[in-house]
Amino acid sequence: MNDIFCIAAEFETPEALIAASEKTRDAGFKKFECYTPFPVHGLADAMGLKRPILSWIIFAGGLVGLCAGFGLAYWVSVINGPYNIGGRPLNSWPSFIPVTFETTVLVASLTAVIGMIAFNGLPRPYHPVFNYPRFNKIMDDRFLLTIESTDPKFDREQTSEFLRGLNPTEVVEVENE
Amino acid sequence: MATQSKNLHEAVIGPNQTYGSVTDTIANICLGKDAPVFWYAGLLAGLMLAGGLAHGAVWLFLNGVGIWGLNIPVGWGFAIINFVWWIGIGHAGTLISAILLLFRQDWRTSINRFAEAMTLFAVASAGLFPLLHVGRPWLAFWLMPYPNTMNVWPQFRSPLVWDVFAVSTYATVSALFWYTGLIPDLATMRDRAQNKVAKTLYGIFSLGWRGAARHWERYEIAYLILGGLSTPLVVSVHTVVSFDFAVSVIPGWHATLFPPYFVAGAIYSGFAMVLTLAIPVRHFYKLHDLITMRHIEAMAKVTLATGLVVFYGYLMEVFFAWYSGNEFEQFMMKNRMMGPYGHMYWMLIFCNSLTPQLLWFRKVRRNIPVLFVISLIVNVGMWLERFVIVVTSLHRDFLPSSWDMYYPTFWDWAIYLGSIGQFLVLFFLFLRFVPMIAMFEVKHLVPQSEKTRA
Amino acid sequence: MLALDSDFLSTNGPGSVAMIKAFARGRKVENGNASGMNRLYVVEANATATGSNADHRLRLKASQVAGFAASLAAALGVGSAADELPEKAKAWIEPLAADLRANQGAAVVIVGDQQPAWVHAAAHAINAQLGAFGGPAVVTEPVLPAPSDQFADLKALVAEMESGAVETLVILDSNPVYNAPADVSFTGALEKVPFRVHLASHHDETGELCHWQLPLSNFLETWGDIRAVDGTLTIQQPLIEPIFQSKSELELIGLMLGDERSAYEVLREAYAQSWALSGDAFEASWRKAIHDGMVADTAFAPVEAAVVPEWASAVERPAASEGLELVIRPDSSAWDGRYNNNGWLQELPRPISRLTWDNVAAFSPATAAQMTLRNGDIVTLGAAGNKVEAPVWILPGLADEVCVVTLGYGREMTGRVGTGVGFNAYKLQSTGSLWTVAGLDLAKRGRTTELACVQDHYSMEGRNLVRIANAQEYSEHPNFAQEGGHGGGGHDVPGQGGPYLGKLTDQDGRREGAKLFEPGKSQGLAVADVENPLSVYPESNYAGYAWGMTIDLNACVGCNACMAACNSENNIPVIGKEQVAKGREMHWIRLDRYFEGSEDDPAMINQPLTCMQCENAPCEPVCPVGATVHSNEGLNDMVYNRCVGTRYCSNNCPYKVRRFNFLLYQDFTTETLKMARNPNVTVRSRGVMEKCTYCVQRINVARIKSEREGRAIVDGEIQTACQQACPAEAIVFGNINDDNSRVSKLKGDSRNYALLEELNTQPRTSYLARVRNINPDMPATSTGADAHAEA
């Protein structure tokens, strides 16, 4: 194992980062990552990322909410407590729609946020990339491209060289500890 | 398209802003050692009013809702008026965050955080009232479905149960939306904070966000879908609130017009409130480069548009009453206009229907002091609207023998003003400790990033 | 019937229950047949429940009634007419006399207790002329064994007290310090008596000035006997042992005579002697008398009596007064002051005025306008050498130039309920002018006070709430109630509940209220239309019992007994003046009163209103916790324990019959109140909605009993509290699934209609429309005669 986590290259503009990502991708690196202060459109394509499955999970969450909402209203009103309420039928389904709708949205939204956080492996208080000396500028106005040491093609010297070829402002080795 | 978008940019952010200057401007408000006098004054005013709420709530719990001016037939008074008013105000935040997100209205980015916070605090103030207004507040949790030894459940045909679901869903989703939007900015704060306590707290709440591209990818999907979910949600919430009235048999309540009319009214009052808050904040924090005239004017236009929908609603109420041929409906309308609360109705028409007509004029839309006054008038007008709907419909319904008057008491006012105090306290704390403008989103608009914008 | 200033259809005074019952039976017409219906003419100064039942009503000052009686008597051929009668009264004489004469032997004139002796004499003369004696009027021996002029006796006693001749004065259950007329200086004389003893249930003004205050047993705690108005003897049987160590009057007098026996022993011995029975024979008769509630065959036999020819000159005919006249009447709640400390009665709205917790100086709208008085103004009333401050109340239906006040208030020493409530009208009374004081001195004080009225709005706004037709319309259109009747007119009580709604009149100045019955034109919706039902939902099925109720508006006299009974049966709290003024009264059944026609001379309409037990109850679907649900017998049940108090049900109730405990209204700590409560009815606490349940506790008792006996509940087995107390038998309750039940038959009557039926609430309580027996020859009044003329 290497004693460094990755080699990082810092850029000043998102355009430079995208161009660098494309080259990194084309160079066959797999375990590389970009860090940006805001979502940069086109970066995912430039990195060759697959579309996440999160959307489908949120859809499933919505379906669960829908069934739970209507099911609860139905079960309570028809099966568990079949009371005559103002002469309405037990299954007053039009009256159950608002609740059904709300639970659908609620479960889908919770799924979206919790799913996003979980798939992102958060919360994670410590990450080796934080060892990048100027990481506090990343969420401000700098753009970082890192190639991790676990990448099969990773070589401390060659990778540094490769990154320097991408016209970054700086290339730094980031410690693992 | 390209030129248009370029024009938009110039208007939505000052020309000299860079990524770094955006971060500095916004983050320094939170990280600065001291707050401006304006902030202390606002917080103090909020605390004083909120003291009235605390006092009123204790007195209410000790004695019962009889300390208010309620009676039979007017079983709902200030509490429900305030509830609907606050919920309505909340709507603008979600609308700005969600609907404008879906429509890709760039100008939303500098006001959405702020508007979402307003939504949350408005919903918090709104949420107080259903709790306070029930006769036995310690049993209010019976409106929630939960398994219990008595094996009794809420009654799902009641609009109040729909309310519980709608408002709690709305509060939860708004909070999620707001918090999700905050995570990257909290990471920025974490990275900038010098103070150890601040750094730790921002660190905890930012969940270790590091701006990785893979994270941003999922983040954007989740955020967009949240926006997509919030859009029908925000429409449903005020629709459900309007069902509290529309589902009843009471003349003046029983109207199919209510859902769209309530939603428009909600957005109307919400935008007025955003203006009421944004104008002084912009002034005192000198955010003219981030909240530009274009924002202000766009909000004024939305206010005008929704105000016209609301005005249409008022006209249709009159028309329906006449067209129904129903003597109770017709009487309700006459009583609204010429009965003992007639002055409230005409004040409402002045505030909500006539005043916003000034917004047709570009000069008015760009005149900050006038706009501020208009926004206050609309806020008052929307409160009056709820008063007119709740009280004048109830106080004279079917049987003249049961007619009576509703007069608010000291405690009605104390709790109402107290809810404004609570809102202000939360809002000022937000201004001080949370980045009030979404930094990472505004950075999209910075001229530097033009080429990468979608 | 002609009632001359007589409020015989109220629950005051002796014999009123029997009279209401008899009167109401003469009003219960069926299916278009109004031929047997009685007709009531009322001439009065006050606006009374009796006046609200009149077919023709004439407002006259109390002092003008004598002149009216004289003119009527003259028209019928006895005595000489008065000349100073107002025009509108003169117009009455001829057609009224003709109608009375045409009903020879069946017509009767009734005179109020407060009218002077001359009017009573004139009425006797008229009744004799009409052949009423032996028919509707009966003369018996006096119920009092030795009638005397009680004021003369009192004055004699005071004189003796003044002179020091009285050494010991024992006052039995009486409060002369409070209620002696102003010209009898009882209080001063009392202090000259060396030893004063007072036997009373409460420590009152008289007890305060006595040396000994002795506790009096309640009538429900002691044995005794009573004579009814017809002379029938009743043995008074206690329900409980005395709660406190008290004595009855009988026992105290016994003790003073050295007889230490209990009232029970005294009573038994007296009856044994009276019946001349002993042993088992006496025991059998005694038990029978107690069981039956009366001693059989003790009513006085009618006696032959003739009117003396010189009746008209035996006492002087009192002259009509000039200017403002003070009319003093007993109060329907406080009576002479003895019930002043009763919270139920204080909070029971007074008939017609619907006021609670006060007595007032009441004026007609015209008189009030003339003197620029407004509701709640404080005025000083000066009479009998005293001045009293009183609040003003404007009451349509009163005679003009009259100020009506009631007795029984302004108590200085009574319990925590009555002390300080109202003003003491006894100070305005003198033995010479007890009930009518000419030339009232009135001054405005420039202050106002709040009065607690339970009904702010007195117009029906032209809505089909109480459906009324006159007898002729009814005969021609028996189904008028289903086709739509006519509602009332009028407007807000000025100064109460906001501005005058008088603007809401149409172009020709006719009030919207004056919507008339139009034959053949349907104004209501036909709910029973099977082919076009109003609801998309299927009708609910009620197998087994299906409880329902009818309220006959033609029988209801507006006496309030239903409200009082409901209070007692259902543990309804007393909430006090301030809460009533806020509109939070708790009565489960209320008696709505509307004025119809002109404000100056309105007809008065009563409508008892309670939970309608709607089959499609609007209150139920809106309750978020299911605290109000439908039973399988069609009751709209309240689950008090489950109620969280959102008040949504009340908002959505079109009848506004739900009541809410806005504060902690029940007194859970006072020991004696605990005993007063009905153990079968939940005592509701703060924050809970409540309402009429059709006395579900009584239904359940009957159900348990019938199930144990293996039979069905029979018709009439269950009586709701209001029904039981209704002297007019206007309320009928029963199983509407049983075609033979009384309630089913009444619901089949042509007068049956549902209130607000167009909302499709399907109420289980329905009304039987009111029919007025108008004499077409009478001058127009607002009781419907003019409406008939227009139609």
| Physical arrangement of strands within the biggest beta sheet of chain C | 3-2-1-4
Largest sheet of chain B: none
The number of distinct helices of chain C, counting runs of at least 4 residues, comes to: 26
Query: Main β-sheet of chain C: number of strands, strand sense, barrel status?
Result: 4 strands, parallel
The proportion of residues in beta strands of chain C is 15-25%
Largest interface: A-B, 69 and 70 residues
Name the overall outline of chain C: globular
Query: Strand tally of chain B, please?
Result: 0
The helix content of chain B is over 70%
Oligomer: heterotrimer
State the end-to-end CA separation of chain B. 13 Å
> What order do the helices and strands of chain B follow?
HHHHHHHHHHHHHHHH
Secondary structure tally, helices of chain B = 16
Percentage of residues in helical conformation of chain C: 25-40%
From the alpha carbons, calculate the radius of gyration of chain B and give it in angstroms. Answer: 23 Å
Find the structural class of chain B using helix and strand composition.
Answer: mainly alpha
Brief characterization of the structure:
The complex is a heterotrimer of chains A (177), B (454) and C (791). With 177 residues, chain A is α+β, with helices and mostly antiparallel strands. Chain A has helices at 14-26, 43-47, 54-80, 93-119, 156-164; strands at 4-11, 32-35, 143-148, 170-175.
Task: Give a written overview of the molecule.
The complex is a heterotrimer of chains A (177), B (454) and C (791). Chain A has 177 residues and is of the alpha+beta class. Helix content of chain A is 46%, strand content 14%. Chain A has 5 helices and 4 strands. Chain B contains 16 helices and no strands. Chain B has helices at 2-12, 19-31, 37-63, 78-102, 112-133, 159-192, 196-205, 213-246, 258-284, 293-324, 327-338, 342-354, 362-365, 368-395, 410-433, 439-442. Mean pLDDT of chain B is 85; it is low at 1-10 and 450-454. Chain C contains 26 helices and 30 strands. The chains are: A alpha+beta (177), B mainly alpha (454), C alpha/beta (791). Chains B and C meet through helix 6 and helix 11 of B and strand 21, helix 21 and strand 25 of C.
What's the layout of helices and strands?
The complex is a heterotrimer of chains A (177), B (454) and C (791).
Chain A: E1 4-11, H1 14-26, E2 32-35, H2 43-47, H3 54-80, H4 93-119, E3 143-148, H5 156-164, E4 170-175
Antiparallel strand pairs in A: 1-3, 1-4, 2-3
Helix pairs in contact in A: 3-4
Chain B: H1 2-12, H2 19-31, H3 37-63, H4 78-102, H5 112-133, H6 159-192, H7 196-205, H8 213-246, H9 258-284, H10 293-324, H11 327-338, H12 342-354, H13 362-365, H14 368-395, H15 410-433, H16 439-442
Helix pairs in contact in B: 3-15, 4-5, 4-8, 4-9, 4-14, 5-6, 5-15, 6-7, 6-8, 8-9, 9-10, 9-14, 10-11, 11-12, 12-14
Chain C: E1 2-4, H1 16-25, E2 41-44, H2 49-52, E3 56-59, H3 65-75, H4 87-102, E4 109-111, H5 117-129, H6 150-163, E5 168-172, H7 176-179, H8 186-190, E6 195-200, H9 205-208, E7 212-215, E8 224-227, E9 233-236, H10 249-256, H11 263-275, H12 279-292, H13 311-314, E10 325-329, H14 343-347, E11 355-356, E12 361-363, H15 365-370, E13 377-383, E14 386-394, E15 402-406, E16 436-437, E17 441-448, E18 452-453, E19 468-470, H16 471-476, H17 480-483, E20 547-552, H18 561-569, H19 577-581, E21 590-596, E22 603-609, H20 619-622, E23 628-630, E24 636-638, H21 648-651, E25 659-660, H22 671-676, E26 689-690, H23 696-708, H24 721-725, E27 731-735, H25 742-747, E28 752-753, E29 765-768, E30 770-772, H26 785-790
Parallel strand pairs in C: 1-2, 1-4, 2-3, 5-6, 6-7, 10-15, 12-14, 19-30, 20-29
Antiparallel strand pairs in C: 8-9, 10-16, 11-18, 13-14, 13-17, 20-27, 21-22, 23-24, 25-26, 28-29
Helix pairs in contact in C: 3-4, 3-5
